Amino acid sequence: MNLILAISKIIPAWCPALGLAITPAVAAAVAVVAASGILVLPKTLEMKIRMSRGFIVSAGALLLVTAVAKLVSASGHARVLQTADPIFAVPFRLVFEIVGALELLISLVCLFGSRVKLQASLVAWLATSFVCYRAALILAGSQPPCHCLGSLTGALPVSPEFVDTVMKWILAYLLIGSYVVLFGSWKHKEPNRLILTTPS
Predict the structure, then answer these.
(1) Burial bucket for residue 7 (CB in 10 Å: 0-12, 13-18, 19+)
(2) Whole-number Å distance between alpha carbons of 120 and 113
(3) Per-residue pLDDT tens for 2-35?
(4) Backbone phi, psi, residue 177, to 5°
């Protein structure tokens, strides 16, 4: 219950930085789903580990997609690559290369590693960094559509605004999910290395 209350209070505070409008009722519903998915519904340790691993794998897959998109875009010749990032004041090409490499590294750790606490910590760190970056954009008065997929956004048959909204919800998923997994691991004082075994 304490976790649900905490998440329901955190979500409305963080969502403006993500550019998402969310009511207290929706925040409470998301909190219940997030908390129950990892901490309440699983009846056994194995079920809880499987659900945590499911989140880690899904996070790794999402980060792999965005990493490849950024690295492919960075090798192109789109005009946006020469534009300076409004926060770091360096070309977007360099930003894509650095962030894409970080996302690729973390995605591989999530997909092929076995240390759930480490994996969740890396996802939480990356997602929190993205939220801070978006908050800095808002404070700087610059809120262009997200370049999360690099120049490939323009190749999709949807508007950049739609892609931006989808990426914001993915970021919220990574942020909330990673902290829920970390909280669950800390609460139950589970070992850092979690190995799934089937009963014989």
Answers:
(1) buried
(2) 11
(3) 544 555 555 555 555 455 555 555 555 555 455 5
(4) -60, -45
Tokens representing residue 105 in the block:
């590294």
Domain boundaries, the chain: 2-187
Task: Take residue 71 and report the two structure tokens written for it.
Answer: 């690295």
Residue that the structure tokens 């998301």 belong to: 30
Q: Measured between alpha carbons, how far is 28 from 12 in angstroms, rounded to an integer?
A: 10
Cα separation of 57 and 90, whole Å?
Answer: 32
The torsion of the CA quartet 24, 28, 29, 34, rounded to 10 degrees, works out to 130
pTM of the model: 0.72
Judge whether 99 and 70 are in contact, CB under 8 Å: yes
**DSSP letters of 10-47?**
HHHHHHHHHT----HHHHHHHHHHHHIIIIIS--SHHH
Place of tokens 């490849």: 68
Q: What is the pLDDT of residues 100-127, one digit of tens each?
A: 999 999 999 999 998 999 999 999 999 9
Residue 103 contacts residue 68 (beta carbons within 8 Å): no
- For the chain, the average pLDDT equals 76
If phi over 0 gives left and psi between -120 and 50 gives alpha, with beta otherwise, what is residue 150? left
**Position 186 pLDDT exceeds 90:** no
99 three-state secondary structure: helix
